[in-house]
């Protein structure tokens, strides 16, 4: 049985629930013979992939839904073999090149070449180009992005590239200017509530409005998370009541607890305990930048504005360094230690002032 | 005999017809981007770059051409000018006389040593195959020359002088400061100015007429504002909007331009500054969340914020300098892979502190 997220995913551009005007634009775009490279950008859970699949269906018909998995192997210049999973149909190919780590350049160049070399036999009645969907392009190395720039222009006759990114800041300007950017904003709370109740209706369940609003808020305007939450709620308690509790994510609770411990006591011994907790989080596969964000959000909650500013500044510095280096725990710990120092100093100063 | 002639005739007719058809099909297959389609065809079409056009015209009338270094912001017609001139100079044998290398080609020191040098060493005659006179030299166009390594540039030095009998170099770049001194002193430098608003609007109007697009008058101004004097960007933007709106009988409005270009509406900046003045961290957090959910690019936000802060009338000079200092640092970290959320929060906190200090 499929998850609700997949089961109720809109398959046609005309059936999308929000950004309807944009959907109409995309339909217009697909009806013309000419088609530019596209770049979809927006936060996760806003529906980028859904829109891409709908657009492909609009372009090629239902054939794109017959998906198959393929593993492709590439050989790096240093003679190492890398395997990459691709998902594709007769018309398109979807790949996440950042899976290949630092060898992503080879994947990008070889893959595009591979696809672009085969022309359509009979271009009448069909599009004369294939589409390559590259996801998480912002995670690509600069090297790969530069390689992409050259290949994008070279093979424009037989293949179009659709990029799917979270933030455009990390995409080099040369690529940005070659694509038509499509901004996919996250759905508003009202839109999420509407979609949630519609989904529940399809499953012949009734979702109380209060619960829907609560879930929408908790999902941080991430539609995928919202729908998953509703499904989780259904498992917990069905039929729904308007005041039932929504399960928090484990790691979020854990992170909050860690932040509280840091606030409670600032000492080397505590630092060691915090390190253990951070290791735990990292080993559970929580991305370090998410940990950083979560820590900052929770730490500054009850602080003075000067400490807030100081904390953010420190986080900023260490997070940037972490992106440069490859041992995440060092930078996380440095941040925590530094925060402890700042916080303790501030508390001591405040106490001194009180005594006088 | 008669029949033979006749049949010969018809067959040629057929051929020409079919070739016409096939070319029409071909054209239909790959609709050219408007940027390529409306590139200036002759030097006279180039607008606003007086000096260089004057020099190239002299050359078209038979004078010698110096080595050229064209520099200026993107989209001001540097490449278009030299390509148009070359086309006029050489006519049909244009392909043989031009070597065009841009940043996407391999351009290390080895290429300069082999490819450029070999091409430079070929001699060129003073007549075309059809007997018409043409200048007895070839042109090597090095596009985006500022991305060449210093070693490669250094390797050019002697080549430029030694082959001056048969070859002219034309370097095109955005930043003249990245070209090494010995090269700049060997070339005549021409600076390309950003195009004025009227000239771009004139061109856009012309294109719209050719392509029969209906556009509101204020939209032209909008496009120019967003593109900042970059002709290529304006034309690309016009075409993107046109494609997205589905082509025929639609009006393009200002909102479409804003949406396509990814420019952030002005009200967000006013709001950001208001929030920072109130010094409320929670509000700032909410604002950042909102802007990230709207999927605006934070890099773009920083760019526009810089202009906004500098032109702001209420901030003191000191506040501006503090904010811009941090802006630079955040921008760098962001491009280097830092998290968007943290960078913009940091900047927000800096603005809060800066605005509070004065009051």
Report on this model:
The complex is a heterodimer of chains A (356) and B (359). With 356 residues, chain A is an alpha/beta fold. Chain A has 3 domains: 4-183, Rossmann fold, CATH 3.40.50; 189-236; 250-355, Zinc Finger, Delta Prime, domain 3 (Up-down Bundle), CATH 1.20.272. Helix content of chain A is 53%, strand content 12%. Chain A is built from 14 helices and 7 strands. Chain A has helices at 4-7, 20-31, 48-60, 104-117, 142-154, 173-176, 189-202, 209-218, 223-236, 250-264, 268-283, 288-299, 305-324, 328-355, and strands at 38-41, 68-75, 81-88, 92-95, 130-135, 159-165, 180-183. A 7-stranded mixed sheet of chain A has the order 2-3-4-5-6-1-7, with helices on both faces. In chain A, helix 7 crosses helix 8 (209-218) and helix 11 (268-283) runs antiparallel to helix 14 (328-355). The model of chain A has no long low-confidence stretch (mean pLDDT 85). Chain B is built from 17 helices and 7 strands. Chain B has helices at residues 2-29, 34-37, 50-60, 78-90, 94-97, 109-121, 150-162, 181-184, 197-211, 217-227, 231-244, 254-261, 266-278, 281-293, 298-311, 317-335, 340-358; strands spanning 68-71, 98-101, 138-142, 167-173, 188-191, 214-215, 251-252. Chain B has a 5-stranded parallel sheet. A two-stranded parallel ribbon of chain B has the order 6-7. In chain B, helix 7 (150-162) links the parallel strand 3 (138-142) and strand 4. In chain B, helix 10 packs across helix 11 (231-244) and helix 13 (266-278) packs antiparallel against helix 14. The N and C termini of chain B lie far apart (103 Å). The model of chain B is unreliable at 1-29 (pLDDT under 50). At the A-B interface, helix 2, helix 5, strand 7, helix 12 and helix 13 of A face helix 11, helix 14, helix 15, helix 16 and helix 17 of B. Chain B: Residues 1-33 are annotated as: Disordered. Chain B: Residues 1-10 have a biased composition (Low complexity).
Q: Helices, strands, pairings?
A:
The complex is a heterodimer of chains A (356) and B (359).
Chain A (H helix, E strand, L loop, with lengths): L3 H4 L12 H12 L6 E4 L6 H13 L7 E8 L5 E8 L3 E4 L8 H14 L12 E6 L6 H13 L4 E7 L7 H4 L3 E4 L5 H14 L6 H10 L4 H14 L13 H15 L3 H16 L4 H12 L5 H20 L3 H28 L1
Parallel strand pairs in A: 1-6, 1-7, 4-5, 5-6
Antiparallel strand pairs in A: 2-3, 3-4
Chain B lengths: L1 H28 L4 H4 L12 H11 L7 E4 L6 H13 L3 H4 E4 L7 H13 L16 E5 L7 H13 L4 E7 L7 H4 L3 E4 L5 H15 L2 E2 L1 H11 L3 H14 L6 E2 L1 H8 L4 H13 L2 H13 L4 H14 L5 H19 L4 H19 L1
Parallel strand pairs in B: 1-4, 1-5, 2-3, 3-4, 6-7
Helix pairs in contact in B: 3-4, 6-7, 9-10, 10-11, 10-12, 11-12, 13-14, 13-17, 14-17, 15-16, 16-17
Pfam families (chain B): AAA, RCF1-5-like_lid, Rep_fac_C
GO biological process, one term (chain B): DNA replication checkpoint signaling
Subcellular location (chain B): Nucleus
């Amino acid at each position: 049985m499929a998850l609700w997220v997949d089961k109720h995913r809109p398959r046609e551009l005309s059936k999308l629930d929000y950004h309807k005007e944009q959907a109409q634009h995309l339909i217009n775009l697909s009806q013309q013979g000419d088609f530019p490279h596209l770049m979809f950008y927006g936060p996760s859970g806003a529906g980028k992939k859904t829109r891409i699949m709908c657009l492909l269906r609009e372009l090629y018909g239902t054939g794109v839904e017959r998906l198959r998995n393929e593993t492709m192997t590439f050989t790096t210049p240093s003679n190492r073999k890398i395997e990459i999973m691709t998902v594709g149909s007769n018309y398109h190919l979807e790949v996440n090149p950042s899976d290949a780590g630092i060898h992503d350049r080879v994947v990008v160049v070889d893959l595009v070449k591979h696809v672009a070399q085969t022309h359509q036999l009979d271009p009448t009645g069909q599009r004369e180009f294939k589409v390559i969907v590259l996801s998480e392009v912002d995670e690509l190395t600069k090297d790969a992005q530069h390689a992409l720039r050259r290949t994008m222009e070279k093979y424009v006759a037989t293949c179009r590239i659709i990029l799917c990114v979270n933030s455009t800041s990390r995409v080099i300007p040369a690529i940005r200017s070659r694509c038509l950017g499509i901004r996919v904003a996250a759905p508003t709370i009202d839109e999420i509530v509407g979609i949630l109740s519609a989904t529940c209706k399809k499953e012949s369940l009734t979702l109380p409005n209060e619960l829907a609003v609560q879930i929408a808020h908790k999902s941080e305007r991430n539609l995928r998370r919202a729908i998953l939450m509703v499904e989780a709620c259904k498992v917990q308690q069905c039929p729904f009541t308007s005041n039932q509790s929504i399960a928090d994510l484990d790691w979020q609770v854990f992170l909050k607890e860690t932040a509280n411990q840091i606030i409670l006591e600032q000492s080397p011994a505590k630092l060691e305990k915090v390190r253990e907790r951070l290791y735990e989080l990292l080993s559970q596969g929580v991305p370090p930048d998410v940990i950083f964000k979560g820590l900052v959000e929770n730490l500054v909650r009850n602080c003075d504005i000067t400490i807030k500013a100081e904390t953010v500044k420190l986080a900023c510095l260490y997070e940037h360094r972490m992106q440069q280096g490859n041992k995440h725990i060092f930078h996380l710990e440095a941040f925590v230690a530094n925060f402890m120092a700042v916080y303790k100093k501030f508390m001591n100063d405040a106490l001194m002032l009180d005594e006088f | 005999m008669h029949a033979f002639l006749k049949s010969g005739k018809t067959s040629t007719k057929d051929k020409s017809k079919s070739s016409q058809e096939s070319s029409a099909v071909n054209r239909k297959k790959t609709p050219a981007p408007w940027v390529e389609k409306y590139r200036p065809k002759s030097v006279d079409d180039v607008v606003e770059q007086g000096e260089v056009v004057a020099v190239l015209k002299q050359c078209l009338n038979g004078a010698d051409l110096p080595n050229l270094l064209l520099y200026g912001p993107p989209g001001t017609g540097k490449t278009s000018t030299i390509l148009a001139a070359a086309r006029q100079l050489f006519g049909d044998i244009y392909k043989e006389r031009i070597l065009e290398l841009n940043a996407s080609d391999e351009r290390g020191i080895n290429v300069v040593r082999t490819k450029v040098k070999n091409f430079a060493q070929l001699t060129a005659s003073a007549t075309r195959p059809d007997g018409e006179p043409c200048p007895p030299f070839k042109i090597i166009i090095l596009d985006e020359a500022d991305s060449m390594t210093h070693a490669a540039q250094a390797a050019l030095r002697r080549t430029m002088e030694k082959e001056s009998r048969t070859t002219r170099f034309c370097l095109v770049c955005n930043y003249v400061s990245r070209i090494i001194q010995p090269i700049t002193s060997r070339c005549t430098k021409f600076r390309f100015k950003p195009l004025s608003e009227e000239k771009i609007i004139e061109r856009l109007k012309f294109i719209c007429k050719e392509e029969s697009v209906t556009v509101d008058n204020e939209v032209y101004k909008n496009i120019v504002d967003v593109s900042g004097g970059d002709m290529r960007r304006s034309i690309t933007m016009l075409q993107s909007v046109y494609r997205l709106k589905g082509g025929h009988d639609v009006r393009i409005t200002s909102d479409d331009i804003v949406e396509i270009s990814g420019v952030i509406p002005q009200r967000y900046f006013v709001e950001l500054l208001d929030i920072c003045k109130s010094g409320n961290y929670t509000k700032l957090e909410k604002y950042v969340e909102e802007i990230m959910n709207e999927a605006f690019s934070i890099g773009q936000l920083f760019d526009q914020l810089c202009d906004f802060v500098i032109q702001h009338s209420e901030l003191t000079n000191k506040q501006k300098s503090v904010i811009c200092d941090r802006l630079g640092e955040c921008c760098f970290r962001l491009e280097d892979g830092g998290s968007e959320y943290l960078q913009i929060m940091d900047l927000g906190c800096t603005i809060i502190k800066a605005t509070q200090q004065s009051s």
